[in-house]
Amino acid sequence: MAPAEERYPKPEFGTPSPSGFLYAGISVAPPHIPVVQRSAERDDALEHCRTLARRLADDSAVVRARVFETVLMPPLKGLPRFDVLVLVETSSPEAIAGVRASEQFQKIGADLVIPADNPVRIGDTENPADGTYLFNHFTAADGDAALGVWKGLTGWYTSKVGVDNSTPLRALDDSPFPFINYARLPAGAVPFVLNQVLRPSFHRFVRTRLKADQMRALPLMCRPL
After folding, report:
1. Number of neighbouring beta carbons within 10 Å of residue 211
2. Model pLDDT for residues 95-132, shown as the tens digit of each residue
3. May I ask the CATH class of domain 10-224?
4. What share of the chain is helix, strand, coil (3-state, %, to 5)?
5. In angstroms, rounded to a whole number, what is the distance separating the alpha carbons of residues 20 and 208?
6. Is the dihedral angle over the CA atoms 156, 160, 164, 167 positive or is it negative?
7. I need a surface site. Which of 7, 63, 127, 168 has the fewest CB within 10 A?
8. Distances in whole angstroms, Cα of residue 184 to Cα of each of 68, 126, 188, 214
9. How far apart are CA 218 and CA 180, in angstroms?
10. Exposed, middle or buried, 156 (CB in 10 Å: 0-12/13-18/19+)?
11. Which of 13, 43, 45 has the alpha carbon at shortest distance from 109?
């Protein structure tokens, strides 16, 4: 029998994005159950972030600023309980510091900020710019090695689950998450989860490989505003 990675051949990787990224996670009213219900407090925070994102987008160093509302928060130990996310794409990694120091970004009041770049990608996560999005937070002792593991798992996701895009955000500073996989999902949050956990190959291949490399995947599934 062929090795697992040969049964799930890697997709074609595209040219890394030249942009920089600022990931901002905000815990406003995290739920007690996995499915995130409406909250007046969260609605106010989302509108606040949308206003700031529009202002940030006027900065010549900002390519785009997107606000996301978490819709599914799996009950996993160590999962960041962010029910509001802001992702700012800058013109380059060198532009991150100036945008991060700006009054508009500071007013977001994030609980966690991760400046990042993109070392490799699949497809175009921003096209189309709607649907359900995944922010998968990876823990690992070695960020570069973890990205290699992620590349080895991509074939399973493209062939078995139908994910056709992925933009790993590699942390540029010390972070609890060396990289966050940012991807647009082929279906909603619940179908995506079920499409993984109900497949024996997910447990034999994906989970086994992550465990062997002492990595954890902590996903939040979100919708953009």
Report:
1. 10
2. 999 999 999 999 999 999 999 999 999 999 999 999 99
3. alpha beta
4. 35, 30, 40
5. 32
6. negative
7. 127
8. 12, 8, 10, 26
9. 9
10. buried
11. 45
Measured distance CA(3)–CA(93) in Å, rounded: 37
Give 6-54 as a DSSP string. Answer: HHS-----BPPPS-EEEEEEE-SS--SSSBPPP-HHHHHHHHHHHHHHH
Q: Are β-strands 84-90 and 179-184 bridged in parallel, bridged antiparallel, or unpaired? A: unpaired
- Asked whether 178 and 210 are in contact (CB, 8 A), the reply is no
Of 119, 112, 142, 113, the closest CA to residue 215 belongs to: 142
State percent of the chain over pLDDT 90: 93
Q: Token digits for 168?
A: 């790993």
Q: Is the pTM of this model over 0.90?
A: yes
Count of residues making up the chain: 225
Q: Residue with structure tokens 């819709």? A: 71
| Residue 147 token pair | 């990205």
Q: Return all residues near 107 (Cβ < 8 A) that are at least 6 apart.
A: 48, 52
Residue type, 188: G
